[in-house]
Design a protein that fits this description.
Belongs to the peptidase C48 family. With 146 residues, the chain is α+β, with helices and mostly antiparallel strands. It has 4 helices and 4 strands; from the N terminus they run αβββαβαα. The chain has helices spanning 4-11, 62-75, 97-115, 126-145; strands at residues 21-27, 39-45, 50-54, 82-86. Strand 2 (39-45) and strand 3 form a beta hairpin.
Length: 146
């Protein structure tokens, strides 16, 4: 998004202030142009009043996640919302951030359904990350064969 106003314009029709859980894919590109090298997950839990940052490269994308947090906390009517860096499985290469983001998002949603909270979401296992990669590759293969 080019500016905080763009973010508000895109989200407002979705009534984000009424949602219990919101997930955002955060890119490390500060420019409005395409690009970037890393993706992480930012999750807002209304009941916990907290934005949780899940980053598979430690705190690499924290500054970009904080920018989104700053923009969204007023839009979501939580001006005193907290920002918390949550534990996350860590990638060991420079190209798996997308898979980690997807698995983290799935884990957060499953944890929220079970426990009604985001904090202390279990860390994804390497097995679940590899399984998600295979699942996506299978979907791509199926699409290509049709």
């Amino acid at each position: 998004m080019k500016s905080p106003d763009d973010c508000v314009e895109v989200l407002r029709p979705l009534k984000p202030d009424k949602r219990k859980l919101l997930l955002f894919a955060v890119n490390d590109n500060d420019s409005a142009r395409a690009g970037g090298t890393h993706w992480s997950l930012l999750v807002y839990s209304r009941d916990e009043g907290t934005f949780f940052n899940f980053d598979s490269l430690s705190d690499f994308n924290t500054s970009n996640a904080r920018k989104i947090f700053t923009t969204l906390k007023n839009l979501l009517n939580c001006p005193f919302g907290n920002f918390k860096h949550e534990r996350s499985a860590q990638q060991t290469n420079s190209y798996d951030c997308g898979i980690y983001l997807l698995v983290n998002a799935e884990n957060v949603c499953n944890n929220f359904l079970l426990r009604r909270r985001v904090q202390d979401t279990p860390i994804a296992s390497l097995g679940s990350i590899n399984a998600k990669r295979q699942e996506i590759l299978s979907i791509i293969d199926e699409i290509n064969s049709n």
